[in-house]
Structure to design on (426 residues):
């Protein structure tokens, strides 16, 4: 399958070389990094530049062996935005926990604008990264070391909440997904923290607040947005390329928005303080997501993100051909689904070309739902080529497929069921 790696923007990857006196030893390269606090504030810190090393053959082999699960498969790659989630510090027995953490992060991302607008047109792929040990480095305290696949750890460069990762390793695992437009790396920890990289963001998987870090960082990597927070200093450079900061005290860069309400409160204007400088740069609103976590995008950021996401989504996918209520437009519903005893619930699943084996799983809810797979059409929906009829409503069925296209899945109510959802893995 074709793989697409999105063009990424470095949030704070402007690398500066620190001057050193003669005879003082080797020069230390440094870079600005974002540091996130649980109260939602964001600051920058001038830290030694992380060393990016080439991957060893064993690293490529480990990544190539990783399985991929479709948390949400809404259509063929090339016609969808493809978000990839990788994990670190999850052992073979903790892959269920990895999925739980990944689904929680996606749910929070998908609940925020404009991601919620395109929720059913985004593919979400989970790469099942297996680590030798559980957890991440320096958790709960500095000095704790764990053997993990992506080398994630807190206290990066003596900064407690900075959750660093081996970016190249994370990228190699993410590349196992059918396509890549954005990457989120989750670490097996309940400690609040995260970090931004040119190609991805990191978050702690078990912390309920950490998804806000990913949402902010996606503003950089997907939309190319600048940070709107600031610290003492005056900007004297040229007009920034980013769409949400400007040198103009009148905000002419976003003139068509001026005076209009903005989702983060108030109206669009030109508010001094942006792009890390207290003076000389202006932002469109008082307090958007690019300034503080937990806030929505302002109108400029929202429209930029909307265009960036929608540009990956094609209208060329046929509408979901099933006329039943379980198929909604071109995005076939995956649940929750209910049916009374003796009845069938039908819906479609899209299989990409080259799928040699697909595992379909039902879970959640109550009752007894059996699963039937039909490679045919609406006219043959009551027939099946494979089925799973375990007691209860948890079923797993593995089938083979060689050509792209929609396929039928039927849920038969051996007894009345409700709240059942569908997931797939390849």
């Amino acid at each position: 399958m074709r793989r697409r790696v999105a063009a990424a923007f470095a949030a704070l990857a402007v690398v500066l070389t620190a001057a050193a006196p003669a005879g003082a030893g080797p020069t230390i390269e440094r870079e600005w990094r974002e540091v996130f606090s649980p109260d939602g504030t964001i600051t920058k810190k001038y830290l030694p530049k992380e060393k990016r090393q080439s991957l060893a053959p064993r690293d490529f082999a480990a990544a190539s062996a990783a399985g991929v699960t479709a948390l949400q498969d809404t259509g063929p790659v090339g016609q969808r935005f493809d978000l990839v989630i990788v994990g670190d510090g999850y052992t073979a027995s903790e892959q269920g926990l990895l999925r739980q953490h990944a689904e929680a992060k996606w749910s929070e991302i998908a609940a925020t604008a404009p991601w919620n607008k395109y929720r059913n047109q985004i593919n979400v792929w989970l790469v099942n990264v297996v680590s030798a040990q559980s957890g991440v480095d320096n958790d709960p305290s500095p000095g704790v070391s764990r053997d993990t696949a992506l080398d994630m750890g807190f206290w990066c460069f003596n900064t407690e909440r900075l959750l660093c990762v081996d970016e190249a390793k994370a990228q190699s695992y993410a590349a196992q997904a059918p396509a890549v437009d954005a990457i989120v790396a989750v670490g097996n920890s309940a400690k609040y923290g995260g970090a931004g990289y040119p190609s991805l963001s990191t978050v702690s998987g078990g912390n309920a607040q950490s998804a806000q870090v990913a949402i902010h960082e996606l503003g950089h990597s997907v939309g190319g947005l600048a940070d709107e927070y600031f610290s003492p200093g005056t900007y004297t450079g040229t007009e920034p390329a980013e769409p949400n900061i400007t040198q103009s005290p009148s905000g002419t860069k976003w003139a068509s928005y001026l005076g209009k309400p903005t989702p983060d409160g108030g109206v669009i204007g030109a508010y001094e303080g942006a792009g890390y400088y207290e003076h000389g740069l202006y932002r469109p609103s008082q307090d958007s997501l690019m300034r503080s976590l937990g806030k929505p995008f302002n109108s400029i950021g929202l429209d930029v993100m909307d265009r960036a996401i929608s540009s990956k989504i094609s209208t060329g996918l046929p509408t979901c051909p099933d006329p039943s209520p379980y198929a909604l437009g071109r995005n076939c519903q995956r649940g929750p689904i209910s049916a009374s005893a003796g009845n069938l619930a039908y819906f479609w699943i899209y299989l990409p070309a080259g799928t040699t084996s697909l595992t379909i799983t039902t879970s959640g809810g109550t009752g007894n739902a059996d699963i039937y797979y039909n490679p045919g059409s609406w006219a043959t929906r009551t027939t099946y080529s494979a089925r799973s009829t375990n007691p209860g409503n948890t079923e797993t069925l593995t089938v083979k497929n060689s050509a792209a296209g929609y396929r039928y899945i039927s849920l038969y109510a051996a007894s009345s069921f409700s709240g059942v959802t569908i997931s797939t893995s390849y």
Summary: The two ends are 13 Å apart (CA to CA).
